[in-house]
C-alpha cells in the first residue's frame, strides 16, 4: 500500500487555526547513536460536540543530530521524503506540518459525514481516526544505518493498517544504499526469482498454484519490494499487508543471503 498521493496533498498546506487543536510538539532529545527524537502530538474532535470522535496524531521521528555535516543533512532529507513526501523542510517543520494538516483535513472532510451518522452509535468507531509514526535505527551492516519507520493508522473501515517502511543510509555520505549497489545492474529478474523461491520455502508451498490457493500472489505477480533491510551477509525484504497476500497474513519478510 502506498500513501504518497495523500501525503503530497498534505505537503502543500501548512497553516492551521490554533483554536481547533490541542497537543504538543517540538520535543527533541539527543540519543547516543547520533540521532535525536522529534515528537509531535495533535488531537482534534470531529466537531465541537461533547465527547465527539477524535483524531489522534502521534509522531516520534529520529532525526540526525549532525545537521552541520552533509551526511546529516542528507539523512534528514531522506527521512522527510520517505515519511512525509516533503522537501526543503527540517524534520521538526515537516512533522508539525503533517500533523496540522492531517487533523485539519479530518475535521473538514469527516464532520459532514458524521452529522449524517451521529444517531447510529454503531458507526461511531468509524470516525475515531489515528495516525502514529514511530522510528528506530539499527546497524546490521558496517557503515550503514538501517532506518525503520512503523506507520500505524486507522481511517475508517474494518481495521487499521500497519506498515513498515525502511531506509538504508551510508553513514559517510547520508545517501541511500540501493539494490543496484548490492546486486549490480539488471538484478530485478533474478532477484524476483530468488524471492519467489524464498516465499515457496517459507509457506511450504510447492508451486504458484498452491500459493494462489493460500491467497498469496492471487491478483499480482512476485516483485522486488521497495522496503528492505541491509545486513552484513543478507538482505531482508519487507512485504506489507496486501502487497502479496491477504491482510490476515500480516507483514511478510523474506531473507536473501548475499
Strands across the major sheet, in which order? 1-2-3-4-5-6
Global shape: flat
Task: List segments where confidence is low: pLDDT < 50 over at least 5 consecutive residues.
Answer: 1-23
Helix-strand category = alpha+beta
Percentage of residues in strands: 25-35%
Question: Could you describe the 3D structure shown?
Answer:
The protein has 6 helices and 9 strands; from the N terminus they run αβββααβββαααβββ. By secondary structure, the protein is α+β, with helices and mostly antiparallel strands. A 6-stranded mixed beta sheet has the order 1-2-3-4-5-6, with helices on one face. Strands 7-8-9 form a 3-stranded antiparallel beta sheet. α2 runs parallel beside α3. The N terminus is likely disordered.
Please write out the topology.
Layout (H helix, E strand, L loop, with lengths): L3 H7 L11 E9 L4 E11 L8 E11 L5 H15 L6 H27 L11 E13 L2 E11 L6 E10 L8 H5 L4 H16 L4 H6 L13 E4 L3 E6 L12 E6 L1
Parallel strand pairs: 3-4
Antiparallel strand pairs: 1-2, 2-3, 4-5, 5-6, 7-8, 8-9
Helix pairs in contact: 2-3
Which features characterize this protein?
6 helices; 6-stranded mixed beta sheet; 3-stranded antiparallel beta sheet; 258 residues; alpha+beta; 29% helix; 31% strand
Summarize the structure.
The protein is built from six helices and nine strands, in the order H-E-E-E-H-H-E-E-E-H-H-H-E-E-E. It has 258 residues and is of the alpha+beta class. The chain is flat and about 60 Å long.
Amino acid at each position: 500500500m502506498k500513501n504518497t498521493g495523500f501525503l503530497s496533498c498534505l505537503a502543500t498546506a501548512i497553516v492551521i487555526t490554533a483554536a481547533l487543536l490541542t497537543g504538543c510538539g517540538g520535543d527533541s532529545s539527543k540519543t547516543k547513536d547520533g540521532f535525536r527524537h522529534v515528537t509531535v502530538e495533535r488531537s482534534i474532535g470531529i466537531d465541537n460536540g461533547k465527547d465527539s470522535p477524535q483524531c489522534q496524531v502521534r509522531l516520534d521521528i529520529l532525526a540526525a543530530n549532525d545537521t552541520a555535516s552533509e551526511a546529516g543533512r542528507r539523512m534528514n532529507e531522506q527521512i522527510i521524503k520517505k515519511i512525509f513526501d516533503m522537501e526543503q523542510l527540517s524534520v521538526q517543520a515537516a512533522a508539525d506540518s503533517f500533523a496540522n494538516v492531517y487533523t485539519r483535513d479530518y475535521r473538514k472532510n469527516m464532520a459532514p459525514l458524521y452529522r449524517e451518522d451521529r444517531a447510529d452509535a454503531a458507526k461511531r468507531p468509524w470516525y475515531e481516526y489515528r495516525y502514529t509514526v514511530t522510528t528506530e535505527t539499527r546497524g546490521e551492516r558496517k557503515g550503514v544505518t538501517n532506518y525503520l519507520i512503523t506507520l500505524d493508522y486507522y481511517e475508517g473501515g474494518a481495521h487499521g493498517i500497519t506498515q513498515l517502511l525502511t531506509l538504508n543510509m551510508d553513514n559517510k555520505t547520508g545517501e541511500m544504499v540501493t539494490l543496484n549497489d548490492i546486486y549490480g545492474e539488471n538484478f530485478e529478474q533474478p532477484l524476483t526469482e530468488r524471492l519467489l523461491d524464498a516465499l515457496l520455502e517459507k509457506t511450504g508451498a510447492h508451486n504458484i498454484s498452491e500459493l494462489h490457493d493460500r491467497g498469496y500472489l492471487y491478483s499480482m505477480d512476485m516483485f522486488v519490494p521497495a522496503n528492505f533491510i541491509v545486513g552484513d551477509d543478507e538482505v531482508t525484504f519487507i512485504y506489507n499487508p496486501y502487497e502479496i497476500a491477504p491482510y490476515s497474513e500480516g507483514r511478510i519478510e523474506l531473507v536473501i543471503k548475499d
